[in-house]
């Protein structure tokens, strides 16, 4: 069970030679979407140099409008894995259908996005897999719903779950979502699972990524997932919240002074 009553010690997820949780801090970084080989390799090299330990990049994108860029899908996954091969960075990317599980065989961490947090069939399928799962909190999910979604994965036998607080809907319009910083200590009180924070999707604006990253570290998060892009102005998705590569490097230097990297 995900409840701390049944498992007192903090869980450490071991993946691709990295440890996540119990104070082992990791930064996952990369573009919202994989756009081309040149783009994903350039970003991968830069975030690796800056100290990120995982490369993120969406291939299957859950967009609000069906007319928006939907991701490069299978081809995007191939390019992400090519960036992994060239840089050695393990990768995290979102799955949208259990039909695609075979395509994700070489993905290191499978992301279950906010919009699918209560896709119970997908949760059950991921429960039968042995891949580490990055479970993002639903757009308006309560903590109980969030932890119960993780419980679905556990119930199928997969205990490699990392939780991600990525902001929730509130009345506030000046930010995309509202980072629920309480989620970090609440997860730690009620569960033994690692929890990371996504300041990029929480704020929706790049000028808040550094302060929200500091807040996450202060609250006890086990890591961060941050959007970074080689050319944010021309990004096909989420450019406004993406750091450019020098900005990402600067934010990483700040994070590295504050968090306990292995
Ligand atoms: C993402 O990570 O690109 C994403 C779509 O995030 P979320 O599911 O948190 O909105
Ligand atoms: Mn995004």
From TrEMBL:
Keyword RNA-binding: no
Residues in DAHP synthetase I/KDSA domain copies: 17-253
Keyword check for Transferase: yes
Keywords assigned by UniProt, alphabetized: Transferase
EC assignment: 2.5.1.54
Top-rank taxon, per record: Bacteria
Name of the protein in question: 3-deoxy-7-phosphoheptulonate synthase
Full-length numbering of the shown residues: 71 to 332 of 339
């Amino acid at each position: 069970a995900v409840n701390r009553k049944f498992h007192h010690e903090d869980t450490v997820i071991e993946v691709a030679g990295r440890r996540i949780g119990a104070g082992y801090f990791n930064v996952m970084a990369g573009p919202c979407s994989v756009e081309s080989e040149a783009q994903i390799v350039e970003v991968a090299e830069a975030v690796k140099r800056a100290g990120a330990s995982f490369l993120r990049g969406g291939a299957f994108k859950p967009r609000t409008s069906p007319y928006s860029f939907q991701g490069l899908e299978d081809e995007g996954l191939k390019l992400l894995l090519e960036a992994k091969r060239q840089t050695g960075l393990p990768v995290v990317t979102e799955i949208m259908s259990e039909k695609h599980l075979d395509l994700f065989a070489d993905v290191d961490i499978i992301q279950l996005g906010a919009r699918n947090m209560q896709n119970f069939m997908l949760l059950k399928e991921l429960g039968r897999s042995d891949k580490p799962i990055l479970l993002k909190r639903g757009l308006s999910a309560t903590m109980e719903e969030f932890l119960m979604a993780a419980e679905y994965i556990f119930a199928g036998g997969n205990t490699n779950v990392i939780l991600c607080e990525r902001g929730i809907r509130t009345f506030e319009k000046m930010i995309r979502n509202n980072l629920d910083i309480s989620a970090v200590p609440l997860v730690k009180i009620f569960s033994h699972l690692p929890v990371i924070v996504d300041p990029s999707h929480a704020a929706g604006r790049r000028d808040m990524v550094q302060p929200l990253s500091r807040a996450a570290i202060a609250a006890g998060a086990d890591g961060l997932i941050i959007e970074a892009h080689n050319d944010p102005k021309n990004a096909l998705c989420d450019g406004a919240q993406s750091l450019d590569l020098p900005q990402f490097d600067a934010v990483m230097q700040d994070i590295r002074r504050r968090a306990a990297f292995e």
